[in-house]
User: Fold this.
Amino acid sequence: MLVYHLPGTFETREDHLDLLWEAGATGLEERAGLIRAYFDEETELPDAIRDGEWRQEADQDWLAEFKANLRPVQAGRVTIVPPWLRAEIPATQVGLVIEPGMAFGTGHHATTRMAVEALSDLNLDGQTILDVGTGSGVLAIAGALLGAEYALGVDIDPITIPIAEENARDNAVPEGRTAFMVGTLGDDLPGDVVADGVFDVLVANLYAELHDLLVGAYVGHLRPGGPLILTGILTGKLPLVQGALDREGFTDVEVRTDGEWALVTARA
Ligand code: SAM
Assistant:
């Protein structure tokens, strides 16, 4: 990989970025006070950008590097791992295997981890769970592995459904204990297990503005007294979600945070 190291930043060398592109750069990156311009071959450069240096660098496989750096994530009673780290699940923990891929939800994001932790704080034996914005299916699968009788994951993005189904199979979730469908609240949910669309637990890792819009629908899908777990909320947006929960009469509102992210639990 051929890289031209030019001293400066995108800001200080703003006028020179076009010159790099015109000279044939295939990509530009700014790192540690240097502009790194990627080229296929060494080329004659205009005077204004001749103060740099050509370097041959080893090719980097970013995906391989990302995968090599993944570590098991502990979330309450659950340890989430990629398939190649199965052996690192402690015998005392519930193991949850998620293949990192196109759908959000490997467990490495604070919101996913806090949501699994919140599920693991509950006694889910024989319970039904609705997971809104299921992504990789991680929360629905965690629920099933923690004893839920049935967890339904819904997502507006069709790409997530086969991924979530495969993750459920990889975790040997018994047939019928999880189901995934394209959709959102307000759509008809499959009524074979939960005929009235009312679940014992509702979990949703979305974002504050969407929780504000959906909170009325959460009431309609949660049994009275049932736990609600909401995350994907930036701490600065907590008042929006807390206000919406107050408006709809939710009680026992509690907040946990991890860095800039918050999770809110409440009861219908
Ligand atoms: N549940 C996973 C987790 O906790 O890691 C994935 C959460 S990811 C942040 C949010 C997911 O919600 C995405 O897969 C997105 O497609 C889905 N989504 C966004 N808006 C939605 C909506 N209105 N209804 C259902 N799913 C939605």
Notes: The chain is about 25% helix and 30% strand.
